[in-house]
Amino acid sequence: MKDERQITAIQSAAILVSTIIGVGVLALPLFAVRAGESGAPLVTVVSVLLAFVGLAVISLLGMRFPNKSITQYSEDIIGKWPGRIGSALIIAYFAVLSALTAREFGEVVITSVLTRTPLEVTVIVMLLLAALATRNSVTTFAYIHHFYFPLLLFPALLIVALSLKNAEGLNLQPMWGNVSWVRPEMVEGILTITALFQGSFIMTTVIPAMRRPEKALTASAWAMLIAGGLYVTIVAATVGVFGSEEIKNLLWPTLELAKGTSLPANVLERLDAAFLAVWVTAVFTTLFSSYFFTIKEASKLFRLGDHKMFSFFLLPAVYVMAMLPRSILHMYEIIENFGRIGLIFTIAYPLMLWLIALVRRKRGSQ
Amino acid sequence: MFAARTAKTIKLLLVIFMVVPVLTGCWDRLEIEERAVVLGISVDLEKPEAAKEESDVSHLRGAFPVPHQRLLRVAVQIALPGRIPLGPGEGGGGGGGGSEGTVWVIDVVGHTLDDALMNLQQQVSGRIFFGHLRVIVVSEAFARHGMQNLNDYLRRNPEVRRMAWMMISKGSALEVMKAAPELERVPSLYLMSTLDNAVRLGKFPVNYVGMFWSNTSKKGQEAFLPYVEIHKEQNIQVKGMAIFKNDNMVGSTMPFDIASYMVVKGINPAGYRGFVPIGSNPEQTVTIYATSRKSSIKASIRNGKPYFKVSVFTEINMEEKISEQFSVNSSEVLKEIEDNNRRALTKACENLIEKTQKAQSDIFGFGEYVRAKLPNYWNKKVITKEAWQKMYQDVDVEIAISTRMRRVGMKAK
Amino acid sequence: MLRRPRKPRKSASSNVQDHSLDQALEQTQDKLLGKELAQTEHFFTNLLGINNDFVIRRFHVFGRHPAVMCYYANMVDQALINKDILKPFMYVPSHLEGKDFGLEQLPEVLLNDAIYHSACKLERSIEALVNAILQGNTIVIVDGLEEAFLIDTRNIDKRSIDTPATEQVIRGPREGFIELLGTNISLLRYRLQTSDLRIRTMEIGRRTKSKVAVCYMEGITNPDLVAEVDKRLSKIDIDAVLDSGYLEQFIEDNHYSPFPQVQYMERPDKVAANLLEGRVAIMVDGSPMALVVPTVFNQFYQTVEDFTERFLLMSALRLARLIALMFSLVFPSLYVAIISFNPELIPTEFAVAVAGGRAGVPFPAIIEVLVIEISMEVLREATIRLPQQVGGALSIVGVLVVGQAAVSAGFASPITVVIIALTTIGSFATPAYNAALALRLLRFPLIIMAGIFGLYGVMIGLIVIANHILSLKSFGVPYMSPLVPGNFEGMKDTVIRAPFTWMRKRPSFLFPQDRTRLSSQTANDQAASKGSPLNPLKFKEERKDTEE
Question: Which domains does chain B have, with CATH numbers?
């Protein structure tokens, strides 16, 4: 057990950032603009704050029970069977989330790059990759995220920086958009974007393996700052370059942003293929996290010694779920709806757990 | 929990599972020499009689639901592999200078763009590949007819890049596509470099097809495209801007109007020359060219209507003097030149603005200023693109230009 | 030539390490020498007499007691035997002339007064005596004595110390290890003239009985590491250890990975440097390669010059080496991916020209690349086996002429040849052969993935490789230390080589006991400006004074 507590605060921040930056970053500006038009960056900021609330609650819960993950301490807080049901629901939700992530990834790849490859193949390859990688321990999990984190962050920042020379400030004004903020679309948009941050739930599995769990909150704050900042920057860049109306025409505005960027002196022209390469890594880390969470928590729920058995066992189920949506538009509808429902699990449920823990003065062993 | 044998079978199945994606082959592999790399596309409107030429590829003849879609003639310029050598003309067949046969221009007819391209694919051996599409030439007739179909197809296709140039040709677009001037090896690249150089020399604002689409979508702005004409040496001249209202072309401007546009928007580098008379004697004229511009547009509401004040600052240098009857050797003379230039430029800009107002096409994007800076007014009075198009006819624009003349070249007088 | 280890015997001592007993000696286990000379002589003759180089020499000790001397003629120093063994055995030492001593005092007299060879001892066990002969020592059995004399006379012809063949260096020592363990140890000792250097030997290999030396620095190396190395080595029970590579395969953490977790080196200065960082070195008699554990990925692109030359320039060169390493892995697959799947990435004129270059080639890009890659590998293997003069010419001929001919024949496109040539050269830039090998061969799966899925396939392949590397551990040290987990101090020696004054502490991923390398005093002194004894201004003043 001693060498299981190896994850530093920096690594946990890296885990969070690379988990959050994932498949949703492509469609993000579209959601934001549908909600707030030229006020899209502000909408994103609001979503980031909301997501941070959820993440803060999870970190606080984890700091209260530094040796347990959510499946374990939820049983302590609200009792054995309610806790188990709650955990089972969350695990099922994350399994669905993994399936949807893999599916969205497959859709983007076969629409924009590999047009004749069957969808099944792209999805299977990505799921297999994630399954293979989840056979390692949580320390290797941290190493993998730590390694990929700069590889994700810097190209993303580079592309955003290079694209800014085409941006017009006028596109970003007025800052709160030309539409009222009390429309239902606004609420939907904010919730959908917040749902993009749900991968941060992995923190509940990471905290028990952290060297110094008391630093969890700072790590979360930093991670949210970086990932949220990146998301806001991406939205601002896309809106600045295209204008909010044009974005409504584009299914994946971030991809178009990368397509229109070129390195100085036209060394490489269309950077979208390179951007997709980086994005594959981002999707892998996200899928890796959510699948790892599913497996690890499932193994804790069933009181099993290690989680390796589940990694291939659950794979067919996840694959079948990934293949269920009938079309790309259907898939996006499901993602939006499920994402919003999932916020109940990822924000409301931990909030409730935390409040009950405060009231009942439950604490874990230090 | 699992028996050892079950575990083994599962592992075996898993290995097969993993190998299957690999064994079924590479679906998207298409060698570069098997692709027909399309460098340029041209779209013309065609008379209905030409439907005879059409092959029954996507539909039976006469059975196509044709509301007001007319026939199109689409031509593509395909790069011939090996005929475009890198380096000083070695390798491949031709040799011996010139762009003899570096590309192949082929045209077909169809009802829509995709229909025409399907007909085309029937006739071309490689798979058509748009990844290197650099120029799209559209004839004026087609532009006036409406470009929705073209825009839609190009937007959906993932291979098309937003950095391509779209241009409107006066006359047949097919001729433009076939033009093969001797300056460059590849005609489409010639077209592309004409426009890129125009941007670099300050003769045209940057306006790739991506920006064209963005401008078309914006509520408070209309788009424009370069308006070109082919000359007898098979070279292309940029004859001004083609201005649009929604997806239809509604007018065109003179080349000098491009300068006015760039002045109002403050686009650098500045490349236009102008004649400025000193006094009333036509012999006393100098040619100046602008080196840089700065402009700011302020929007406000006067009398319930939007009112715009455009403040421009330009720097000019003198390039040539028409005759030796007068000297340019003191700063008063320069000041006079500046004043005259200011008046001329203001008049030119006002002309252009009037022209666009008549056509209900706000290519300057004044509407965007209203939307962005005066959101309350916009949200109440305007809201939609159509409303702004109507309102644009009546707005007032005041132009205040200040000029500074800096240099006169290397001659002292 | 590795043979499978034999099944353990069913005797009581079979649980313990049983290195020493050869087939012929099965009967004599634990037997001791008897007093009867004739019997003993008979035994040795039966055992080893069939070998032509086995010598049995009868003589009389001090003229009276019959004795027998046995040795292998080719493994001993003949002069030594004549002068320092036979002679003192035969003649009574001068200060003991005339004294009479009986048989019981003989061993003491001989040992203390007569024999003046430094390495001489008494031995009773037959097993040990036989082993001694096999190692090139001499035994002298005296009639009536229960113990025999065992004298160290081992002298095997060895090659001279030469420039290491696999690790050429511009600035740095040019000594390399040779096969004999004794010489190697001496090379190491004179570089680390401290009593902290500990060298422990053990014997591994039933039939080769090779001496294996484990070296470490007491006070620096973590004792847990040393204990683990000992444990892993002691578990090895094989027939032969012909090279250190055999040991490597047994002590590695993950034998199935393409990446080496044990590094080998032929240079004593490199071994000394690694020992000083807190690693453990393993040397085997008969092999010029020393193993150093634990290994991290960083070490594969570092060379000796990095530390002996200026740090700015060598940092740039290290960066170049790292890029070459990455290139040798991904370049061909990137080429295949771009040409076959995503030609929109390259500038238009170039894309069309490449299409032109490929127009006459009958195969798709991936087949072409695979064929040329495989031919390149074959060529490389061939050039290693050829003698020096022909080998150099063939590599140039092979690459240029065959490549050019292939292009003219329309078999390959010129760009493919350029890419493959650059890749091969890139892989030569990696200093460590085993790592270069790993990356060289990992190219092939990547090319296949690129051929199926394009750029996306290359990324998937790279992710699989990266994940694998990140999960590797060498004796508990994560393979990508100090990058992952982040250790700032260690990072000063990764892509760049920071000046010594910045690297005051040893890298912590080896958990050394003594962390300081450079005293802060020296670091501060470096910062202070140095004196200028030959300042021209100073001399100008002096000269003016003398002239006046």
Answer: 32-252 (no CATH), 255-407 (3.30.300.210)
